[in-house]
Specification:
The protein is mainly alpha-helical and 252 residues long. Helix content is 53%, strand content 5%. It has 2 domains: 7-88, Glutaredoxin, CATH 3.40.30.10; 99-244, Glutathione S-transferase Yfyf (Class Pi), Chain A, domain 2 (Up-down Bundle), CATH 1.20.1050. It has a 3-stranded mixed sheet with strand order 2-1-3. GO terms for molecular function: transferase activity.
Length: 252
């Protein structure tokens, strides 16, 4: 287990520092933690504080994760941080050497973690629930996230179908794989990303993922089509990843 520090201690530390949202299994932060764990890279977690002017000035961001390695420029996208991890610890490789397969893994990363991807769309789906009905993020949280991440009320009914389409796409890809991972017997960054995104649908049990009861209820809000698309093989893949590769319990 690693001890979280505040901004001033994080800035003063050497090596790799990463700001992390606390209290919930935010998939973006959990992916970064997972990649660094798999690669056994030493790093210092820094508690994210969107009101901390010093942190914002240091990272250039009002969201997390942001990675700062030595005196290098801060990196704020999961794709950039995965690339940094590959540079710091080339083995085990999480991006394939084969050019075409590497491109596919990177595209999967965007489909899972990028703007308009599964995690992004699921977050907006939960915002839409909170803004229009029961479930999802509570009113204050929903309003904050709506303003921050571009929720558009007139598009509210489109977020769910996007989530469903991507869940089905990844479930089908897993079903066609000849091994426990997306690419047969080879684990890639996309496997870590897919496993961590599942927290937005079905967080791990409280004994390994301790989170506030209301937050858990928000994450677990599922309408009929989303519940149907959350195929058993997606959760089985997540369970395999945590049983064999990712750190438990989660340190939130």
């Amino acid at each position: 287990m690693r001890d979280y520090v505040g901004t001033s201690d994080g800035m003063a530390a050497d090596g790799l520092r990463v700001t992390i949202v606390r209290g919930v299994p935010s998939p973006w932060g959990e992916v970064v933690k997972g990649v660094l764990h798999v690669k056994n890279i030493d790093w210092q977690p820094v508690s994210f504080d969107g009101q901390d002017k010093a942190q914002i000035e240091w990272t250039g961001q009002v969201s997390a994760p942001t990675a700062v390695y030595g005196d290098e420029a801060p990196l704020s996208s999961v794709r950039e941080i995965v690339a940094l991890a590959e540079r710091l610890a080339p083995t085990p490789a999480l991006l394939p050497e084969d050019k075409n397969q590497r491109a596919l893994v990177l595209q999967m990363g965007e489909d899972l973690m990028g703007e308009g991807g599964l995690a992004w769309s699921r977050r907006l789906q939960l915002v839409h629930y909170g803004m229009t009905s029961s479930g999802g993020f509570s009113g204050g949280v929903a309003a904050y996230l709506a303003a921050k991440y571009g929720y558009v009320a007139s598009m509210g009914e489109t977020y769910g179908p996007r989530v469903v389409a991507l869940l089905r796409e990844f479930s089908e890809f897993l079903a066609n794989s000849e091994g426990p991972y997306l690419f047969g017997d080879t684990m890639t960054a996309a496997d870590i990303q897919l496993a961590c995104v599942m927290a937005l649908f079905a967080p791990l049990p409280d004994n390994v993922c301790p989170m506030h009861e209301k937050a858990r209820a928000s994450f677990e809000t599922l309408d009929g089509p989303t519940k149907a698309a959350l195929a058993p093989n997606l959760l089985a893949h997540r369970d395999h990843m945590y049983a064999n590769h990712l750190e438990l319990p989660l340190q939130l």
